[in-house]
């Protein structure tokens, strides 16, 4: 069966080419090639988050979470939004713990400098400002649990499960729903690209729109979740941990 994502991508490229939007077409093709396998796949997003932590890339990590807050978590219940906020706090804690464990004090200080807007007036972080200056935080009653392997593993599994639930609640864009309906009603071969990478639809199935612009107004291009280079595999501790637990993750509605 034809992949509806590929059909929609081809429609968009065909439209941009038709309108002469060459710059937009080039950007769309680049983004599509970079994120072609993600499509809201939980594993890919979790790997990106862990990779940002391993690479001390707080800017990209904040970008990923801001995207999740804006595009994914807005469809959740108030109780689920509270869980999302707690996970965000814990992911940033994991980032900070990783800097301390690897003796990257400058990265720990940078974390606070670049996240003051998030940390200010956040009572959960009152004691954490002292972490970069504590000699042995693993012996501190406040911080020692955050340095354990068990806490790291539980956090990553919880994040995976919560994202699975969150992604399942996403409403597909109108254009994607339209293509899905067409594919269900017609032979999949009707939607395979023809010469020139253009899409041909049976005339009897083309929906009635006042203008093609109306249809295009209803669809939103999913933003690229992060700029993490996925062509260079990270061999850090957290990446290894993620690979070890990936095989045993059972997606359950842990929080509900």
Automatic annotation (TrEMBL):
Cross-referenced InterPro entries: ARMC9_CTLH-like_dom (IPR056327), LisH (IPR006594), WDR91 (IPR039724)
A GO molecular-function descriptor: phosphatidylinositol 3-kinase inhibitor activity
Name of this protein: ZK563.5 (projected from Caenorhabditis elegans ortholog ZK563.5)
Domain ARMC9 CTLH-like per the UniProt entry, residue ranges: 52-168
Entry-linked PROSITE patterns: LISH
Pfam families linked to this entry: CTLH_Armc9
Principal cellular location given in the protein's record: other
Species this chain originates from: Strongyloides venezuelensis
Top-level taxon in the UniProt lineage: Eukaryota
Localization terms from the record: Early endosome; Late endosome
Family named by the database record: Belongs to the WD repeat WDR91 family.
An annotated GO BP: negative regulation of phosphatidylinositol 3-kinase/protein kinase B signal transduction
Keyword annotations from UniProtKB, A to Z: Endosome
GO cellular component, one term: late endosome membrane
Coiled-coil regions listed: none
UniProt keyword Transit peptide present: no
Transmembrane region(s): none
């Amino acid at each position: 069966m034809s992949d509806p994502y590929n059909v929609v991508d081809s429609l968009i490229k065909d439209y941009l080419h038709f309108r002469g939007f060459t710059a937009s077409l080039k950007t769309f093709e680049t983004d599509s090639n970079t994120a072609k396998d993600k499509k809201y796949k939980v594993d890919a997003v979790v790997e990106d988050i862990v990779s940002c932590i391993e690479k001390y890339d707080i800017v990209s990590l904040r970008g990923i979470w801001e995207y999740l807050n804006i595009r994914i978590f807005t469809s959740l219940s108030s109780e689920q939004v509270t869980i999302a906020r707690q996970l965000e706090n814990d992911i940033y804690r994991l980032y900070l713990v990783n800097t301390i464990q690897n003796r990257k004090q400058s990265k720990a200080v940078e974390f606070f400098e670049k996240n003051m807007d998030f940390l200010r007036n956040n009572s959960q972080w009152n004691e954490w400002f002292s972490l970069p200056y504590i000699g042995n935080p693993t012996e501190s009653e406040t911080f020692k649990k955050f340095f354990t392997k068990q806490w790291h593993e539980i956090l990553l599994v919880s994040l995976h499960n919560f994202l699975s639930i969150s992604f399942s609640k996403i409403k597909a864009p109108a254009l994607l729903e339209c293509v899905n309906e067409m594919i269900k009603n017609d032979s999949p071969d009707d939607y395979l690209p023809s010469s020139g990478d253009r899409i041909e639809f049976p005339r009897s199935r083309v929906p009635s729109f006042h203008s093609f612009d109306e249809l295009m107004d209803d669809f939103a291009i999913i933003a690229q979740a992060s700029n993490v280079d996925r062509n260079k595999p990270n061999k850090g501790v957290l990446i290894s941990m993620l690979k070890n637990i990936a095989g045993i993750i059972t997606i359950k509605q842990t929080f509900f």
